[in-house]
Structure formats: structure tokens, C-alpha cells
Design goal:
This protein is mostly beta strands. The protein folds into three domains: 145 residues, Cupredoxins -  blue copper proteins (Immunoglobulin-like), CATH 2.60.40; 115 residues, Cupredoxins -  blue copper proteins (Immunoglobulin-like, Sandwich), CATH 2.60.40; 137 residues, Sandwich (Immunoglobulin-like). The protein contains five helices and 34 strands. Strands 20, 21, 24, 27, 29, 30 and 32 form a seven-stranded mixed sheet that branches. It is globular.
Amino acid sequence: MNLTRRSLLASASAMVALPKFSLANTDVEVLEARRSAVSLVSDKYPDTEVWGYNGGVPGPEIRVAQGARIRRRLVNSLDEPTTIHWHGIRIENAMDGVPGITQDAVQPGEDFLYDFEVPDAGTYWYHSHFNTTEQISRGLYGALIVEEPNPPEVDHDITVIVDDWRLGDDAQIDPDFSQIHDWSHAGRLGNFLKASLSPTLTEVKKNQRLRLRFICVATDRVMRLALTGMEGKVVALDGMPLSEPTPLEMLTLGPAQRADVIVDITGEPDTDAVIGFVGREQSIALASLKITGQASLSSRGDIPRLPANPMKQLGDIEGAKVAELNMEGGAMGGLRQGIYKGKMMTAAKLVENGQIWTLNGVAGLPDTALAEVALGETLRIPIINDTAFAHAMHMHGAHFQEILPDGSFGPLLDTILIERQERREIAFTASNPGDWVFHCHMLSHQSAGMITWVRVTA
């Protein structure tokens, strides 16, 4: 059987995270980055060689109570350096996992202890932050769930990790991570979509209530998801509870974005409740849950909002510092020149160096911060996407809010999807000292130039 794009997409199904793993002679649980093989597609195809934490993809789900302390020792059994970034967590700067900014990369055969508290409940994840396009594409990621002291009453609390793989006819990961077309267009888009459900769930009953924690770990693909046989509301974005739950329609998640939804099973017995990907050419069932009966005669009633996290929302932003961010480059972007490693280069020379995109005319991590703010100071970042492609901009160490056209503020986010030729503005009040990277989480775009940083001084 030939492994075509259509057959790969059509065969997408749930994949289960492996259990926790620890090395002997230590009281700290270990996340070992190593090569392994997993049955990614189906038993009709060979196992896929991956890079995973503790041999699994996704890595072990970490689930702790709000306010808990997490201690994990990264052991690097790969042939190249790596780190772990704890995505979305308001974390001590030294634990953020960005090589060259917050720590040295962990070399092959070495280890590093991550030790931090989790102040906010919600849905987060962890992933490599070294050679990210390749290391995340090969499987170095996992879910981090921080539970509220009084969570909403549901029958099932399920983490749903959605990913996008580029595989060859032998079900192996395409090893070419430096295609100029990928860098300059929408990124490394795969031909096989996968949903991993943890814990595994295959059957539900009508009128049961589910909490689905969606995490988009795709390298570059924007995931547009539709749910059938169930109805509900979005209760949190990027880990942060919404002030009021919003009706669930199409769920659009850029790379790195998350959404918590609470749904009631509304389909009839002997039908399926389906989580599906909606594409331009076809829709694909990522997970199907058989409705085997009826849990009750009536629905559960209103869906409650989640308790707020202890994070200050924006107030008066008059007088706030402003740092504009202008995105340029890519195919059809008209980029003529840019600064890379302190030198002005032509577009052709930037391409030779693997740099296709610029932020404020600079490709790659600049020597100077986009902005420097003091604790308690508010920073406004107007963002102009002067390119032909969407970008998912992620801020480390903080959640921000969008300043809406009417002057009100959107929900707390750590990643914002900015469409082509779009102008948006975000702002946050600095509460976490350190140097924090701000980059496109379309990882091909980040690798090809779209990364900067913000300094928060104590």
C-alpha cells in the first residue's frame, strides 16, 4: 500500500502518551530526550523513528495542582544539544529553557534540573527549544496540566494534542528540514494529522459532560477543528480562564495555542462524537468517540466559568511604553535587505544564511531588545504583518491582552495568530524580571529569522 498524502490524512487516529519514567538512584523524575520508534500511522506501516521524551510521543503528561512545584531532570541522550521550554508558564527566567538567553544548551550525555512553581491553573505544554523546527517535528513535546483547586464537574477530563507530521512512503519522518519553499511560505506542512487523547477515550454516553484540553503542537500548520455530536463552550485560551465562556463553533488554533472547551454529548446512541480537522480540500476525523448509550435523560445545564488565575488584567494604558513590531519577508514579501548578526545584508545574502524573515528589519535574534521595561510598567506592541502569510507570535514569561478596535481588552493569551496583511496591538504589564524571547511559533519562520526579545528589569 502506497503511503500517499490522502491515505495518510485519512488514517489519522488517537495516539496515547506513555507512562512516566524515572532513572534509578534519583528522587527527581526524569525526562530523557532520546531516539525511539512508535506506531504512528497504523499496524499496516512500519514503526516511525522519532525523538521523544522517555521514548514516547507525546512525552509523559505532567499533571499537578495549582501552586505545586515541578522538578524534572532533563537527560539528553540525543546526538545534539537540547533544552526544555515550559510553554505558557510564568516561570523564573533561569528555568525558561532558551539556549543562549536563559541557559546553556544541554549537551549530549549531560543533564539539567528544571525546578519551578506553577502559579496558574490551566493547559500548558513543554517542548524542546533547541533546533526547534526539527526537534519538535520529531516528537519532543508533552502536555503540562495544572489543575484548579475546585475544577468544574465533568465526566471526563481529556487532553487532546493535535499534530501535523510530514512522512514518506515508509512512514518515516521526512529528514529535510531546510527546504527554502517551507521557510519562505507557510512552513513545514505535513501530510498526516494526528490526535493524541490522554487518557484514552473511545466511548461516551449521551448527556455526559467532557472537558477537552486542546493543544496544537504542529510545527507550522494552523489547525481548524470542528466538533460534531457534542455542544459546549470555550472556557479558557492559552491556559487562562475566559471571563465568560463563549459558544463553541469552529476552533482555530495556531501553532502553540491551546483552548479548554467543556462540551455535552448531544449525539444519539449508536452514532459517533467526532473531533475533526476542517481543511480546504477535505475534512478529516482525528478522533471518533462511539456513543454507546444515555447517561441521563436531560443535559447538565449551564457551563460554568473557570476560577480566575492570580494574574492582573490591563487597566489604564495611557502613557504606556510603545514598541512597534513590523514583520517583513517571505515569498511575495518584497524584502530587499535586512540586518543579520549585526551586518546589513541583501535579501539574496539573507537567504544564503537561511534567513527569510525580519522583525523591524532584523533577521534572527538581535543584540538589542525590542523593548526594556521595569516591573510594573506596561508595554504596548503594535504589530504589523506586512507579509503574505499568517504568523503565531508567542511571548515567553508573560500573558498579554489584545487592545481591540473599540479600546477594550481581549482575553489573556501567550500566543496570537496574526493573519496576512493584518495589524493588531497587544499589551502587558511587566511582572516577571528577565530576558524573554518573543517569536513566531510557526517554527520554520522562527528558524528563518522571526525572533526578538524583551527585557524586564527588577
